[in-house]
Amino acid sequence: MTKPMRVLGMMSGTSADGIDVALARISGKPPALSARFEFHHYTPFRKHVRKATLRLANGGASTTADLSDLNFLLGEEFARAAIEACEKWRVAPHEVSLIGSHGQTVFHMGAPARFQGKLRSASTLQIGDISVIAERTGIPTVGDFRPADMAVGGQGAPLVPFLDYLLFRDAKRGRVSLNIGGIANVTVVPARASAKDVFAFDTGPGNMIVDALVERITRGKATYDRDARIALSGRTIQELLARLMREPYLRKKPPKTTGRELFGQAYAAELIAWGNRFHAGPADLVRTATMFTPLSIADAFQRLILPRAEVHELIVTGGGANNPLMMAQLAASLPGIVLLPASSFGVPPEAKEAFAFAVLAYETYHGRPNNIPSATGAKHVAVLGKLALGRKRRG
Fold this sequence. Notes:
Nucleotidyltransferase, domain 5
């Protein structure tokens, strides 16, 4: 086995609230790759950074100057998060061999589709310049993972199944890894699975619609519904929920991905307009949107997962794992399937995606393929990401 490397992974999701940083100790190579989680740290975005990021991601900023400026600004934010994490953990930067940064997605369209009135090609854009990160930290940095998968015919997502397969494969139990971030996505790892048996896709909305509603309703005083307090004070609008469940994306077959272009601010604005038209209370809208997430996940199980694989356990990560209403509805909708936290497997739920990008970066650094074509729809395996060496590290 090769000498272990300490690799730092960073992830900022579609909610654009901040950066999760994870440190891993990794050695070997597939199928005997060993990845051990060490630490997690979270750095929230400063208000003006989050505002600029959401404005761009929601189509509100359109100049190349806006995009270029934010790319470098976010590079500084990711570098700051990495340095902050190392200081917190009392790990000297020279002890870290490599950084894997997912960056901040500002646009993702996994397949050709109409968007803003035009038929557009598949494309993706994650920003937060890796040269800035490598220079500020003195640590070689891998980033821009998604385009290589798309170049070989994939949707550029999901990429976390590479780690899910490593963590959750089992000889007897079929498992599904569910992440409820801004968007909800699943990785299905059947019992006795090889990498070719794994499949994954975005089920639909996670917290994105709820977060947008809460932010509008509270006029920016809250960015999410802590402990589902707002939702629990309202009632489910059955007519609206039935309408949401007719969303065409839910019926599409995988591989499929989605994001803000479908379930972003415009979607939330339509719900608010519907509420105004039919005199629905704000808390009722939040509760209905909250229920939409677990019911759309359960719908994906019935349509797309259970016909292909027997599932015994569901491992839940992401912010939605902390929403009691979402979790209660999810458990009620999937009888016979045991819900487990990722912590049962040695990884805090909030750290798993950052941990995944540490593992992906490690494989990229060694020149090994790190996508799973059965998850992304790629024609063949590919080495994902680009490497910025930065300045020479100082001990």
